[in-house]
Write the structure tokens for this entry.
Amino acid sequence: MIKEGFNTEKRGLKTANITSDLVIVGGGMAGTCCAITAARQGLTVTLVQDRPVLGGNGSSEIRLWMLGATSHMGNNNRWAREGGVMDEILVENLYRNPEGNPLILDTILIEKISLEPNIKLLLNTAMYDLVKRGADEIDYVLAFCSQNSTQYHLKSPLFVDASGDGIMAFLAGAAFRMGAESADEFDEPFAPDHKYGELLGHSLYFYSKDTGKPVRFVAPSYTNKELAKLPRFKSFNLKDHGCRLWWVEYGGRNDTIHESENIKWELWRVIYGIWDYLKNSGEFPDMDTHTLEWVGTIPGKRESRRFEGAFMLSQKDLVQQRQFDDAVSFGGWALDLHPADGVYGDQPGCTQWHTKGVYQIPYRIMYSKNVKNLFLAGRIVSSSHVAFGSTRVMATCGHNAQAVAMAAVLCKENEITPAEITGSSTMQLLQRRLIRSGQYIPGIELSDPDELAQQATIYTSDTFTLTGLPADGPWKSLEFAMAQMLPLQKGKIPSIRFQVKVAEPTQITVRLLKSLKKGNFTPEVILAEETFDLALGERFISVDLQCIIENSEYYFVAFSANDKVQIKCSETRLTGILTVFQKFNKAVATSSRQEPPENIGMEAFDFWLPERRPAGHNLNFELESPVNCFSSEQLVNGFFRPTTRTNAWVAAINESQPFVELKWDKIQVIREIKLFFDTDFDHAMESTLMGHPESVMPFCVRKFSIFDGNGTLLSEVRENHQSSYTLKLDQPLKTNSLTFRLEHPSATTPAALFGILCY
């Protein structure tokens, strides 16, 4: 037993001293992705999280779905899901948890951290103070764990603030902002005025379920019983079972840091008021058997402090898709601002305006301009309030934080500060390391003199040549304008034959469209068009637009809307080939055409969106001459997802044993092999609430094997579902060839490979 008498002196807490290469405060998606990325690169990491679970707003404590540039597949950002660890987590969650259970996501995040021996995870541990070394450098931070009554002294040469409110950066004295800039500071016409409000509020979610028997509800005394009078309450959808009410938002007129508990209490009043009205007003008899299953105890926080880096991202950087020499990440969520009055206001719950494509995010927004060993991650990165409306979402935060982690690795290797990475040679090394790890940086390919696959001669089994797609799918009505996206090569485009079914004599117009900016997927330039008179019944039409195209990129063969016409579809799903529709997703838009006010600096354009599976078929078509868009050279072109081209080698669908072989003129010494697969970067993979029709993307190669030049099996994988696979060899391999044998994912989806890396 332990027995200790009275002590006249104050007792001290148990204290643990931990020294590591990197201390990360905050275990949301930014901190989690940062920790995993850094640990896999060899850094020792201490991850401090003040909650019992990881994931922040995506965890089971708050239950918001993770999203980024894909934006519910409701914008024109094709193949825009984030890469690297962020992608790995989303893909793994889909595999284990297509139903979107937030508790399962908790287990995945904890598992990912626990598998990294270089990470020391401190849950239920809040940082509360720090000690500086001089005016502009952090020496160590102090944290306290409420569960083991232990105080921690965490020392490191480098620190990452991913805490959401920026507790470490604030205590370190770093320059910050809170609220909205004036429109003229960064020339941002979309900057809100005081009537709209300068801060986004908090939201609280709840779950309900049907018990099958009558359930009584007695509202607590603090319930707000006046909610039925609020305009926004009229949009409640009983099928949502409560939790999708993101618009239950409050606090934008408050101090969203120091008044956060007060905001939470007000949100509880709102939630129980909603439930009281549903249960006891008599207007919703279907809710008689429903009960509250879960109500959040901490709100999802959107905005508080933003800290100043060497550069501040602002509206025109996003809208104009400006290019940066130090680009390390990307975004694509709408510029999404919310009225400060939230649920108590009479304005729409949000104002979302989309860019025409994804935008680059520069490294210079990811470190403090004042504190020389402090990185910024998550929603506190250096941006204006308007730009923050887009950069704040979880998948973007996680993707940015991977760049922070890799930068920390370079800082240690080169004994430099975060700011010193901005030199051209070190920045190019950072970009190279990121792309190798699966990070996607728009417009930047992997250029790596140490990579061996690009030095090899590539041999493959028969390659898929695009001559058309078979007519084995359903008929699709032209209720909306519809377009088949095709990666065409410069020169004269071939004529294309489609099969249509006509309910009564009518006309349709077929246009060839492209984006104004190469690399975007917003079809806004009409290159050619042809109108067809259609008689009753089934028939083929040949579209011969007699058009010479100047660039090899994606083009849209678009049919005008006409609900009297159906087009035959195909069951074949093919990497980099997609059908889109001129319509809108009400989760992120209000019309199929974005028409912003002229004075807010946003662009007008049409949305062309894919359908989610099990819909989303390609059209059946036949090409007059083949399009060679899946050549083996794309395996080593430095891009690992579709961009302006497919960037994939695809095996012929009738090839029984697809393979890729790399051959070198002399023996190579290989320690690591990496393969990149197609997990459909166009699919949003929302992590919670929204279920998905499959647990493995239909394009993903599940079974493959790797052999050396002697035919020795190096690796065999039977159940792959991830975007990349890395084989680290126990002993360096000396060989002059490697062979990769793949199996088609299905009878209607040929095997595809985005890239091979060898080191």
Notes: The mean pLDDT is 95. The chain is about 15% helix and 30% strand. Residues 260-280 form the longest helix (21 residues). The longest strand covers residues 724-742.
